[in-house]
Design goal:
Order of helices and strands: HHHEHHHEH
Number of domains: 1
Strand content: under 5%
Radius of gyration: 12 Å
Strand order of the largest sheet: 1-2
Helix content: 55-70%
Shape: globular
Largest sheet: 2 strands, antiparallel
Number of helices: 7
Structural class: mainly alpha
CATH architecture: Orthogonal Bundle
CATH topology: Recoverin, domain 1
Number of strands: 2
Length: about 110
Amino acid sequence: MKPVTNTIMAVAFLAAIPFSAVHAQSMTGAERQAMIENFLQADTNDDGLLYQSEFELLMQLNADDNLGRAAIVVRTGAYARAFDRLDTNSDGAVSREEIQALADERG
């Protein structure tokens, strides 16, 4: 997958992570960049999809950087619940389409 496509997908994913629209709008450029970098790092097989273990890595990276509500997911161990919210077709991976659909829903 091309880096530009990965970046676009990462930005869409960031809009879908469970935090309020107000918080998403108040994020700094540095926070958005950190989330994008974390997403790309978590996509360990570079296929543009996040599987459960990759998603958990993303949440940990975002929690380490104090981004979004990832720390709550990590602290409570709610990885599966957050992942399931995104994986609407239950195929075990979060696709760009699923991420975009949730981002549009929150829109």
